[in-house]
Design goal:
Elements lengths: L8 E5 L2 H12 L2 E2 L14 E4 L8 E5 L12 E4 L2 H6 L3 E4 L7 E5 L5 E5 L3 H9 L1
Length: about 130
């Protein structure tokens, strides 16, 4: 094993509460609630996770500055670009020219690549 292990994904956002809601709707995720008896102030990062336990936890972190340049890292997802666009994503580059995925941006400008799901993924996505 190498000197590190994967833990979480972190996304920056000006309106981290709204972006957490957007990603929950897009991925079928839910907010991770704090331990019983504890509260999480609204200005703190918001952890979201896959309730089935299959996907990685994502932290939506509040930052004061807007996104200004291309992400150095992005998410690749199986999904439906049209549905994400209807939810408020922006199309940056349509599939074509040897690329079989769309490049979208979430409402805060974070890039994601959307791939057409293979048949086994279509069934899984329909169950959500």
């Amino acid at each position: 094993m190498g000197p590190t292990r994967f833990k979480d994904i972190a996304l920056d956002a000006n309106d981290h509460q709204a972006l957490a809601d957007w990603w929950c709707a897009a991925l079928g995720y839910v907010r991770r609630e704090p331990p019983e008896g504890e509260t999480r102030p609204a200005q703190w990062p918001v952890p979201i996770h896959d309730p089935t336990g299959h996907g990685p936890q994502i932290w939506i972190n509040p930052v004061p500055e807007p996104k200004t340049v291309k992400n150095r890292m992005h998410l690749d997802v199986w999904g439906d670009s049209e549905k994400l666009l209807a939810m408020g994503a922006t199309l940056l580059r349509a599939r074509g020219e040897g690329r079989d995925w769309d490049v979208l941006a979430d409402p805060e400008g974070n890039e994601l690549c959307v791939f057409t799901p293979p048949p086994e993924q279509v069934i899984h996505l329909a169950r959500r």
